[in-house]
Design brief:
The protein has 140 residues and is an all-alpha fold. The protein starts with 6 loop residues before the first helix and ends with a helix. The protein folds into two domains: 7-53; 86-139, no CATH class. Helices cover 79% and strands 0% of the residues. It has seven helices and no strands. It has helices at 7-18, 23-34, 41-53, 61-85, 87-97, 101-117, 119-139.
Amino acid sequence: MRRTFQREVRDYVIVERYKGKPWKQIVAGVRERFNIEPPSIRIMQSWFQSYQSSSEDPTGVKMIATAVEDSANRAQPLAYAKMMAEMPQIFKIHEEYEIPLEDAGWIVCLSVVEDQVGRKRFDKILTQYKKIRNELINAK
């Protein structure tokens, strides 16, 4: 009987191999991380080879970039509609807080993102962004 493995197992194997880990270490990682009996090294090698040959860019960067772009293009009309629905809110913030209209728009945009990821995660992301931004500025 032929076994099938979750997509996560295949992804893990491919990523770990790209990191240069030996097959025996990857087998141990699959066993530990997914709590399953790993596939044979031969099967994992076929996954890795298949992935490499399915992409012009063997690192998968182009494939990931294409997937992200496709997702963004599909989400763009919904995001635009959401922003248009928020226009009264933008004008309200602009008038109530006496800030430029563009700044009010950015505030609403950020609040839409916060609604999607949650306040705690949003605050964490902002903190990380500021830290990384400052490190990049200081590195120049």
